TrEMBL record:
Protein known as: Twitching motility protein PilT
Residue intervals of the PIN domain: 3-114
Keyword Plastid tagged: no
Keywords: Plasmid
Superkingdom per UniProt: Bacteria
Signal sequence extent: none
Species of the source: Sulfuriferula nivalis
Any Pfam family hit: PIN
Amino acid sequence: MNVLIDTSVWIDHFRNGNDVLVNIIELDRAFTHPMVILELACGTPPAPRIKTLNNISFLQSCNQVSLGEVMQFIEHEKLYGLGCGLVDITLLASTLITPSTELWTLDKRLADLAVRFGVAFEPMLH
C-alpha cells in the first residue's frame, strides 16, 4: 500500500521526527502532491529550505484531480460545511483515484473523511 503524506504529517515530522514516515519513504511507498509541497513552501521547512522542498518533490506523485472534479466531488458527496478546505478535499479526491493508496493526515476532520471513504492510513505504533 502506498501512502499520500499530508502537510500535517510533514510538519509533525520536521518538529518531532517520525520513524514510520522515514520507513515509508525508505520503502518507496510515500507519495506527494504539488499542493502539499506548496503548503510546505508557505511555511518554514527545515534548512536548507530549497533542498528539503526538492527532496519531497522527488517522491512519487499521486494522481491529480482537476478543480472541476473537486467541485463535483464536493457537491456529489456533500463535503461542504465539514471544516475541510480546498487542499484537504483535493488530497482526498487524489487519493481515491490513485490505486492502492491511502491518505495519512493528522488533521482530524480530514482523517474522519479518509475513514469515511476507506482510504485512511493508520500507522502502527510500537
